[in-house]
Design a protein that fits this description.
heterodimer, A: mainly alpha, MetI-like fold, 2 strands, globular, B: mainly alpha, 77% helix, 0% strand, Sugar ABC transporter permease (chain B), membrane (chain B), transmembrane helix (chain B), MetI-like (chain B), transport (chain B)
Chain lengths: 276, 327
């Protein structure tokens, strides 16, 4: 009896959590007459790829297709991941492998900057991007997202670097490998899974960001996916089928990646408070 | 030539041990340099800059490009927004919204965490995975889907209220036909839906963190308490919750920080920045600065106020973390 109550509550929670996601995917496969029918169908009766075809082939804004936005987002995210991953790896190695004077100060600084409300930085960064001549370019976003993802990326990666036994590196050094060789041949391969997790985190930051993309880009052909999405809704007659198809395409890559690294994100955020 | 080439060689040979040691000392700093540079230029410098900008009258794009000087405003911008009843309403709404969302997220998250801990293994995995999907959904698409669920013609909620018996619906709400009912037009209702969206998106993190915390509590403690005759409620208050207190502290702080600066969901639900009755601090700052006519100085002042509030909260977070972990 008690077990049954617990299980029923569990199912209710699961339903609450998953329903909007389910409804998004389900709607994206429904023909318009089912979407706008007076009695909603949980599952599409006549599933169709019509909305996906529409957004993938049609022009959202004259001359610009959904694929263009997708590519913009992908470029921005990929560049962010690469640069931020590299810089984070160097910094994580420094804090995990060396004891130096400013080490603790640096770690505290990392924690503090993670708490800066990025929304509050949009005005000064807008001025900076303008003066650098980067306004209306994708690098303006790449630069910004590197800054945003870096503190947590270092925080996350330092645990992975620390987990690689120092003895391995020392053994390599005794065998005559220099620092660079030890780094490339020993540390990097062992830290690779951590680097993947960190990259996924940076990818999600860059892929989901809205405010800065909204502010720094004026030219519609350079919009990223989240900004382009805002064009779909808020109009008098929203084409919900297309909106849900686009939302699904925006969500799925993030969701797949996120599930892969969520443990890391939890432990990073709750850093140390939760052991085990 | 020969002396020139020879001299450095011998000098290098002599100095090698010293130089290598000194170079090793530089290694960590060299490794940190790019990271410190990026954080300095992209986070810390703008943070200082927003404070500076809040002290100037900035209202033209030519000032943005550095083509026109910045007239000093002193604390004028602060005087202006703090004296503006609309800003005070925005500030009040932000604080109330954040407080309500933190409380609801913490309660729901903790309950779900406790539930996950009690469920059988397969059920816990199933519920946990479902909960994770809500968390993994980008804030933007999550908000858009909820906007569709609350659509005034074909949305699921509108359908549901239409499906209620007309008599009941009329007696409870004073209307039977909900088609065309603007769920987002009444600010209170707007904030309620925004709360639903934010809580839906953020309770999974709390649940998962609480679950992780519970797993780290030795089960002997619970057994001992139960043997001593404590009921489940008593066990939670006297055994579990003190052990989880550090986790709770950090979770509350993180939630506070996140809920204070909600932007994406609010922007998506409101369909932009036109509806001023739904403003909160971050969107107020953004719209003040970037909607024509631009008022970057005023927007900066609002951003500084938001930052100050969060900085205080962050202080607690860092203190809690430092107590927890040897860095």
């Amino acid at each position: 009896m008690k077990r049954a109550v617990l299980n029923a509550t569990g199912l209710l929670v699961a339903l609450f959590a998953v329903f909007p996601v389910f409804w998004m995917i389900s709607t994206s496969f429904k023909p318009n007459r089912e979407i706008f029918s007076s009695t909603p169908q949980p599952v599409p009766r006549e599933p169709t790829l019509q909305h996906y075809r529409e957004i993938l082939t049609g022009n959202l804004i004259p001359g610009v297709t959904f694929t263009d936005f997708f590519v913009n987002s992908l470029l921005v995210a990929a560049a962010t991941v690469l640069v931020s991953g590299l810089i984070a790896l160097l910094a994580a190695t420094a804090v995990a492998r060396f004891r130096f004077r400013l080490r603790t100060s640096f770690l505290i600084m990392l924690l503090v900057v993670q708490m800066i409300p990025l929304e509050a930085l949009v005005i000064p960064l807008f001025f900076m991007i303008q003066r650098l001549g980067l306004y209306n370019t994708l690098p303006s976003l790449i630069l910004t997202y590197i800054g945003f993802s870096l503190p947590f990326a270092v925080w996350m990666l330092r645990g992975f670097v620390a987990a690689v036994p120092k003895e391995l590196e020392e053994a390599a050094a005794i065998d005559g490998a220099n620092r660079a060789q030890t780094f490339w041949r020993i540390l990097l391969p062992l830290v690779a899974p951590g680097l993947v997790a960190t990259s996924i985190f940076s990818f999600i930051v860059a892929w989901n960001e809205l405010i800065f993309a909204l502010t720094f880009i004026n030219d519609q052909s350079r919009y990223t996916l989240p900004v382009a999405m805002t064009f779909f809704f808020g109009r008098d007659d929203t084409a919900w089928g297309s909106v849900m198809a686009a939302s699904t395409l925006l969500t799925l890559p993030v969701m797949i990646f996120f599930i892969a690294v969520q443990r890391r994100i939890v432990s990073g955020l709750v850093a140390g408070a939760v052991k085990g | 030539m020969t002396t020139l080439t020879k001299a450095p060689e011998s000098a290098a040979g002599r100095e090698t041990p010293v130089r290598r040691r000194r170079r090793l000392d530089h290694v960590p700093y060299l490794l940190l340099l790019p990271c410190a540079l990026v954080i300095g230029v992209l986070l810390l410098w703008p943070l200082g800059q927003v404070v500076v900008m809040s002290l100037y009258d900035l209202d033209s794009v030519r000032q943005v490009r550095g083509e026109r000087e910045w007239p000093w405003a002193g604390l004028g911008n602060y005087a202006e927004i703090l004296g503006d009843p609309f800003f005070r309403t925005v500030l009040r709404n932000t604080v109330l919204f954040a407080a309500a969302n933190v409380v609801l997220t913490m309660i729901l998250g903790t309950l779900v965490g406790l539930l996950l801990n009690r469920l059988g293994r397969r059920m816990a995995t199933f519920v946990g995975s479902c909960v994770m999907l809500a968390w993994a959904t980008p804030a933007l698409t999550g908000a858009i889907v909820w906007k569709w669920i609350f659509d005034d013609t074909s949305g699921l909620v509108t359908w549901f209220f239409n499906a209620l018996p007309d008599g009941l619906s009329g007696a409870l709400f004073g209307r039977a036909n909900w088609t065309g009912y603007g769920w987002f037009n009444d600010p209170l209702l707007f904030f309620a839906i925004l709360t639903l969206v934010v809580v839906w998106h953020s309770f999974p993190f709390i649940a998962v963190s609480v679950l992780a915390g519970l797993k780290s509590v030795p089960s002997e403690l619970h057994e001992a308490a139960r043997v001593d005759g404590a009921g489940p409620w008593r066990v939670f208050w006297s055994v579990t919750s003190p052990l989880l207190r550090p986790v709770f502290g950090i979770l509350v702080v993180l939630s506070t920080i996140w809920d204070f600066k909600v932007f994406t969901q609010q922007y998506a639900l409101a369909g932009g920045t036109q509806d001023r009755s739904t403003y909160m601090l971050s969107i107020y700052s953004y719209a003040t600065a970037f909607s024509p006519p631009p008022k970057y100085g005023l927007g900066s002042a609002a951003a500084v106020i938001l930052t100050l509030i969060l900085l205080v909260v962050t202080g607690f977070y860092i203190r809690a973390l430092l107590k927890q972990e040897e860095l």
